[in-house]
Amino acid sequence: MVSLLLVLGVAVAVFVGFNIGGSSTGVAFGPAVGSGLLAKLPAAALMTVFVLLGAATAGRGVIQTLGGEIVPSSEFTLLVSVIILLFVGLALLVSNTFGVPASTSMTAVGAIAGLGVATGTLQEPEMARIVGWWLVSPVLAFWICAVVGRYLYPYLDASFRIDRSPGAVLERDGLSVSLAEGTTRREFVGTVAVVVVACYMAFSAGASNAANAVGPLVGSPAANVSVDAGILLASGAIGLGAFTIARRTLDTVGNDLTDLPILAALIVEVVSASLITFLSWIDVPASLAVSATMSIVGLGWGRATRTATLGDAVRGDAPDVSVDALAAEAESTPTADGQAQGDGGAATTDGVPELGETDEDLLADDLFDPGTTGRVIFFWILTPSLSFAASYALFRFVPL
After folding, report:
1. Domain range for residue 305?
2. Overall pTM surpassing 0.85 (yes/no)
């Protein structure tokens, strides 16, 4: 007979997965929906399919890490599993309340670590390995994108720039689909690339986030939930969120991100998704939101600090810049003869300012806000810390 506590645990797991689907779908598919290539319904369908693929492949090890590697699975009674999942749900509440993408992975690990310390069962080598990667991966995301932004981005933009035309990319006439008026082949190929990378991000989200919804349940011997059943439960819940509450986040993120160049979106998504997929393959739960945000900051910093020498930029003597520098691009791209290149045709790298030269486009706006970035990082640290402290206090001093 199914116990009421197990039903509650499944309900909380669905709630967590539902909210993950609502937020992650907007991050992954917002640019594709905002560009008009994908409608919300097929975006949600693709999100569900690739989340399932990610969870069923790279995500298995992450589920097992949360379910028995940080703390022995024998510690996960049904009640404990439900409490851990509630901590993750509260992290989502904090994230939504303050408008900061708090990491559910970090919060789940923090709650499990609190249980381990309270009961004296924390597997310290495994915990040290996870925290080590937490420190390394955002730094890697920042510097990879900073190097690309500072040294490669202007040349990539000059050679492969894709200007967005107003309106949708495709238009439909009955059963036939064709390029919309004003849409170039270059723009279409670039937007399709955004969809492909969005599917890759959905894969990485499934690999990392499915464990946050079902890891404690799969780890609980009393729950008797297999890894396969947990994958289906988490993917279904994330898909439910993608088809429902994600509609609003798709509007928000899509409208916000359509002002960014397609090239910048591709770089950020590929770097952040690749880092999370790599960490999932080595069974480390990590945050896609953290990696994506640090990728954006790194690319914007590198892009805007081309006007200073490397030493000045590292010392903080560079001109004030912000991630909006990614959108501060010339309205036309110079060609080899110095003329503006229009209509998505091939361009050359002539006219790209050398390092240290002034670029008026980048100086026009104050684009890097250390205060805002510091606030985001503060909440990334705060939510797992609060989760750890609350979990430790509960399991140490309350008889359960």
Report:
1. 4-397
2. no
